[in-house]
Amino acid sequence: MHEYEARVLGLLAKNKSVSLEEIEESTGLGKDSIFWAVESLSKAGAVSVKKEGAKLVQVSEEGKRYKKEFPEEALIGRLKAAKKEKISSIKDQIALGWAKRNNWVKMQEGSVSLTDEGTKALGKEYQQRALLSELDSMEGMDVNDILEKNKEVATALMKRNLISIKQKTTIREVAITKLGSDLVSKIPKDLGIGALTKDLIKGSEWKTKPFRPYDINAPTEASYPARPHPVREFINVIRQKWFEMGFIEVEGPIIESAFWNFDALFSPQDHPTRDMQDTFFLSNPKQLTIEDIELMNNVREMHLAGWKESWSEELARSAVLRTHTTSVSARYMKKLAKAMESTFPTRMFSIGSVFRNESIDYKHIAELRQYDGIIVGDNLTLANLIYTLKSFYSKLGLDDVRMRPSYFPFTEPSIEFFYYDNERDTTVELCGGGIIRKEITKAMGLNKTVLAWGGGVDRLLLNQKIFGVESLPLLYKNDIAWLRARGNIKV
Question: CA angle, corner 167, sides to 165 and 173, nearest 5?
């Protein structure tokens, strides 16, 4: 038993029940020590505690200024003399809003004038100011009764941020229970040394006196140390998994040209994914420069041969917020076209933000994080891609990943990886991938087979085995209480 608990129990054994002030006076303990001891004894069933709640008020600096006169009072005071005032000349819209809400003024033909209610209000004490003044005089005192009697006015003051209310719970009485009485007889005469002090170390008492055992299960105050945001934490996990599999990391620009985001990846210029419904097109800059003229000509020929339609350089230069990190893979493929043969096989991945004009729901958001990857080499097949992705998801604890055929403009054949969410009774897509089309590698000047894939980081956080977030928008609300209550990433 802790020394503080023993002191409190010893006092209660003589008095049965005491107030917090009596405990402080008799034991010499500080309030924090008493609160801890009483809470610990209460959890053990050794004492019973009677608590009472109090509401404390704090008046803001703006509220203190309003004690003399509210803006709406000043407005109707001016209108008494001027009769009318142009709406455009009233700078304080808060005053106008509250005067109208109180039915003190009316607005006609661009002017404001007093109503009968406003004229009567000139000679009366304003309720909001009266209550504000009363509450200011009671700062630090329990104002629960006053708030209950003036609910409507108090609510108005809180909405205007003129006052703030804090709930405070205090201990009114502590009484010993039968269990507590039984424990008193078991309290040893010498509780031992609980803390090493300077005076204790200087002396020799610590050499002969026993040390009190340290209770690792003792209740403590909640601690919230700094930690990475769940998304950032998980990005670091994913990055590490790819490193473990022998991949290198590559980065690319968030503001991208439609050329690298779509055209270089064989997406036709009239493809639905380019519509304003899906893609964020920029107005400043509206277009970006495409420096590699030879590549641009190769891509033009690829589109004309493959899609049998005209190809616009102006559309290709359009500036967009990238819709996928596959644009990073496209840039890297072009870079590999001039690489030495000893460079291959090459494995790379990228992780970053992408943007889509989505309708927000539990698994869709407008800005999301995506991971992308490619393997470049000879004699690569779809089996190599499936093995790679299954290995990656297995490292995350996902062994129930499924596959199905799919379609993407830049891969052939294409597959999609997903898992079944039993809780929501739906499938959740993890990533899409396939073998990069020969038309693309030829335009890049890359005479190799390229396996490619891309998936959502945020979607993985929906999985119960990893994090189990209820919906993706929750991740980005910056709700401190929610973030503190969440567990760590499980992989």
Answer: 145
pLDDT in tens, 345-382: 999 999 999 998 877 787 788 898 999 999 999 999 99
Which alpha helices (H) appear in 45-169, and where do they start and end? 61-66, 71-82, 93-101, 116-121, 127-136, 144-149, 151-159
Residues whose CB falls within 8 Å of the CB of residue 479, separated by 6 or more in sequence, listed in order: none
Dihedral-angle region of residue 116 (phi above 0 means left; psi in -120 to 50 means alpha; beta otherwise): alpha
Looking at residue 310, what DSSP letter applies?
-
The pLDDT tens digits of the residues spanning 47-57 come to: 888 887 788 88
Q: Is the pLDDT of residue 276 over 70?
A: no
Residue matched to tokens 């335009």: 443
Q: Which amino acid is at 57?
A: V
Sheet of 111-114, strand order: 84-86, 111-114, 105-108
Q: How far is CA 391 from CA 70, 369, 488, in A?
A: 68, 21, 23
Is 239's pLDDT higher than 90? yes
Beta carbons of 57 and 138 less than 8 angstroms apart: yes
Q: What's the pLDDT at 191? A: 67
CA–CA separation, 254 and 351 (whole Å): 11
Element (DSSP H or E) covering residue 349? strand 346-355
For domain 232-485, which CATH number applies: 3.40.50.300, 1.10.10.10, 3.30.930.10, 1.20.1250.20? 3.30.930.10
Q: Report the candidate in 293, 287, 292, 357 with the shortest Cα–Cα distance to residue 316.
A: 287
CA 147 vs CA 54, 86, 172, 207: distances in Å: 11, 37, 22, 59
- From-to residues of CATH 1.10.10 in the chain: 59-157
Backbone torsion region of residue 103, taken as left when φ is above 0, otherwise alpha when ψ lies between -120 and 50, otherwise beta: left
Q: Mean of the per-residue pLDDT values for the chain?
A: 88
CATH 3.30.930.10 residue window(s) in the chain: 232-485
φ, ψ for residue 204, nearest 5 deg: -120, 5
User: What's the pLDDT score for residue 438?
Assistant: 96
Three-class DSSP category at 140: coil
**Residue 476 CA from chain centroid, whole number:** 4
- Does the domain at 59-157 match CATH 3.30.870? Answer given as no
Q: Given the DSSP bridges, would you call strands 346-355 and 248-249 parallel, antiparallel or unpaired?
A: parallel
Geometric angle at alpha carbon 390, from 427 and 273, rounded to 5°? 50
Residue 161 burial class via C-beta count within 10 angstroms: exposed 0-12, middle 13-18, buried 19 and up: exposed
Q: Which single residue is written with the structure tokens 């009366």?
A: 124
